[in-house]
Amino acid sequence: MGIFAKIKELFNKNIECDGDMNSHIVYFLKKKKFLYLNKNIIVRDGTTCVVVYKAKVADVLLAGKYKINEQSIPETYKRAKVEKLNKKGSKIKRIRVDLYFVSNNEFKDFDFDSDEPFFLKSKELGRIKGFIKGSCNVKVIDPGLLVRCLINETGKEKTEDVHEDIGLWIGNKINKKIEKDKISIDNILNNNDYICKVLNTDLEDAYDFIGIFVKNIRLKAIDFPKRYQKRINAYNKQHVMAIKPSVVYNGNLNPSAVTITKQSGTLSQNGTMQTNRIDPNQANFKICKHCGFKNFKTNRICNNCGNRFE
Fold it and tell me: Cα dihedral sign for 173, 174, 177, 179?
């Protein structure tokens, strides 16, 4: 942006989102801290604007062009007491707010993680805890509710923190589901297709409480604490179908985590997998350029880092 464009922007009192809403599910507009009365606010197609006044959601604006007045932002107008004079005895000309632009698009391959573990008991592994990691499709169904949840603790949410926070909500909910239903750790490690089918069926409406709809849940990895390493290694040796350790967390190889890989086969009625597991020595592979992990040639997404193959 040139110097003249910056100066023009500095004196521009109109509001319009400057973020790429194809890559941001929620975008916090940092540059604009005030709504100037009788100026304009433009909400692009495919987005919704959420107006937050004093850390509380006040108004929600759908796509369109609005003149900033009592008709367009009635709740903000009311809470700011615009009709009254300010301390200096003059009329209020601007309202200090936080503006969040929410995308109406469906985000595919939305990565999620978890920091609240599940606890399960297994005859072979004993009592064990783990942290689910994976991806899913996410679509916002209630922008006001989502923003309210995001700002609930601190009163403000940075754009760069949105994806992580939503991802943790998704992952932690899955962990609670696994623990509550006492899903077998063997099924989690070996019957990935069955587990994903269960999660997608049972959690279809489970995220309404934060204003999002989640579908096509896919598990990529389970992170086990290091103290379980010996048990996991022993389990891997005894089970042909067991998942081998090798997943990257924060750029470092985590030997205590296991990746979840695709299997060929069919599901029986009780959920057990009748598999014809592909022999790694005979299958065709391709190497992920992002992490170097060896994947089956038919994979569209790397089973290790989650990046899509071109």
Answer: negative
Q: How many CB atoms lie within 10 A of CB 274?
A: 8
Interval 91-129: pLDDT, tens: 889 999 999 999 999 999 999 999 999 999 888 788 888
- Burial tier of 137 (Cβ tally within 10 Å: 0-12, 13-18, 19+): middle
142-161 average pLDDT score = 94
Tell me what percent of the residues of the chain surpass a pLDDT of 70: 75
Q: Where are the domains of the chain?
A: 3-103, 106-276, 278-310
Q: Where are the alpha helices (DSSP H) in 67-190?
A: 74-79, 143-150, 159-180, 185-190
Cα–Cα distance for residue pair 296/166, rounded to 1 Å? 30
Q: Classify domain 106-276 at the CATH topology level.
A: Tetrahydropterin Synthase; Chain A (3.30.479)
Mapping DSSP to helix (H, G, I), strand (E, B) and coil, where does residue 197 land? helix
E strands, 166-282, where? Answer: 212-223, 245-249, 252-259, 265-267, 273-275
What's the whole-number average pLDDT of the chain?
Answer: 80
Backbone φ and ψ for 213, nearest 5 degrees, come out as -115, 130
How many C-beta atoms surround the C-beta of residue 96 within 10 A? 10
Compute the chain's Rg from CA coordinates.
24
Please list, residue by residue across 254-270, b when 16 or more beta carbons sit within 10 angstroms of its beta carbon and e when fewer do.
bebbbbbbebeeeeeee
59 backbone dihedrals φ, ψ, rounded to 5°: -135, 155
Least confident segment among 26-40, 75-89, 142-156, 197-211: 75-89
Structure tokens at 269: 């009625």
Q: With bands split at pLDDT 50, 70 and 90, how would you rate the model's confidence at 291?
A: low
| Number of helical (H) and strand (E) elements in the chain, helices listed first | 7, 19
